[in-house]
TrEMBL record:
Protein name: Polysaccharide deacetylase
Coiled-coil annotated spans: none
Pfam families per UniProt: Polysacc_deac_1
BP term (GO), one: carbohydrate metabolic process
Keywords associated with the record: Signal
Domain of life assignment: Bacteria
Keyword flag Cell wall biogenesis/degradation: no
Signal sequence range: 1-27
Molecular-function annotations in GO: hydrolase activity, acting on carbon-nitrogen (but not peptide) bonds
GO cellular component, one term: extracellular region
Length: 359
């Protein structure tokens, strides 16, 4: 009898162990995050998906077996090195447009998909008819909506006002962030302590400010979040406008974080010379011959290998004024998905009054 009991316990233990290994094999340690703005047929096409396109995206997530999860929880799990469900993905919106409530929310609600909206509160507080109300946000919260910080007035966070000192600029940026945190707590009773930088622009001063406040923040570079990410400058995949094609979205949803040990981009600003970025890869077997880096508006970057695991990607020419980026991709060993990495630089003009490039 004892031997049968022992056998049963051992067999149960083996089954539990096998189940645990199976669950571990199905888990993932990274998260693609989708970024939307408008859900409308009449808003600017560059930042919009139509309701039909948004339905197509959400239907694909559902039928392809993606697990749409809460962004805040997922980020905290990644930071703690906890596994996410297989095919985990998160959905976000920037700006508190009312068409998110009218056209996007019913689609998400029907599928029980959680989502996050980064709100700029100035138009909300003045009751603009084009933006969400606090009451609508409360309703959306009941069905998986989370509302996070996008500053008060959606400024270029690295530009100073005329005659403004660096100290005054820093104080103004703190006010832009702290006021929204206070309003979230006042109207909704809580804040997820997440922020999306307007226009995706930040520098080390701003990122350090976020770290001190315990706020996780997103830029506008594309890529996949992992435990190795900079949690004060996280990537997302744009899914609106030119990026709304389902075929290209499928590739991004099937991406993994580039296995990088270090990145040296030479700072946040571009100058009169072409930008370069130095990437050092982790130990492992990779398809380096298939690594390709693309420069916005310029084609492929030149790749120069400094060692077996270190490459320098250089743009063909200098960026024009504004934001420019280099996107690097590489197929994984099995050829079933792509590793993905992106970096953004800002090329400034004197009359834009950007803060010191060393700030």
């Amino acid at each position: 009898m004892l031997s049968k009991v022992r056998y049963g316990v051992m067999r149960c233990g083996l089954l539990v162990g096998a189940l645990g290994m199976s669950m571990m094999a199905q888990a993932q340690d990274f998260l693609p995050v989708l970024q939307y703005h408008h859900v409308s047929s009449t808003s600017p096409k560059s930042t919009s998906v139509t309701p039909e396109q948004f339905t197509e995206h959400m239907d694909y997530l559902q039928t392809a077996g993606f697990k749409v999860i809460d962004l805040k929880t997922a980020l905290e799990d990644l930071k703690a090195n906890k596994a996410l469900p297989e095919k985990a993905v998160a959905i976000t919106f920037d700006d508190a447009y009312r068409n998110i409530y009218k056209a996007g929310f019913p689609i998400l609600k029907e599928r029980h998909f959680p989502f996050t909206v980064f709100i700029n509160t100035e138009p909300v507080e003045r009751n603009s008819r084009s933006f969400l109300t606090w009451q609508q946000m409360k309703e959306m919260e009941e069905f998986g909506g989370v509302f996070a910080n996008h500053t008060i007035s959606h400024p270029y966070m690295l530009r100073k006002l005329e005659g403004e000192t660096d100290v005054a600029w820093s104080t103004r940026m703190e006010t832009e962030v702290d006021t929204v945190e206070a309003l979230l707590n006042e109207h909704l009773g809580h804040s997820p302590k997440m922020l999306a930088y307007p226009y995706g622009e930040s520098n080390q001063t701003i990122r350090s400010m976020m770290a001190e406040k315990g706020i996780m923040a997103f830029g506008q570079q594309s890529g996949v979040v992992s435990a190795d990410s900079d949690f004060e400058n996280l990537p997302r995949f744009p899914a609106s406008g030119a990026y709304s094609k389902l075929s290209t979205l499928k590739t991004k949803l099937n991406s993994q974080p580039m296995p990088l040990l270090t990145v040296d981009a030479g700072g946040d600003f571009a100058g009169v010379d072409p930008v370069s970025i130095r990437l050092t890869f982790k130990e492992g077997k990779y398809r380096f011959k298939d690594l390709a880096c693309y420069v916005s508006g310029q084609g492929k970057a030149a790749l120069e290998w400094a060692s077996d695991r270190e490459v320098v990607a250089t743009a063909p020419k200098a960026f024009g004024t504004g934001r420019g980026r280099i996107n690097c991709t590489m197929p994984d060993r099995a050829g079933r998905s792509y590793y993905w990495f992106s970096n953004v630089w800002i090329r400034t003009k004197a009359d834009q009054r950007y803060v010191s490039e060393k700030s």
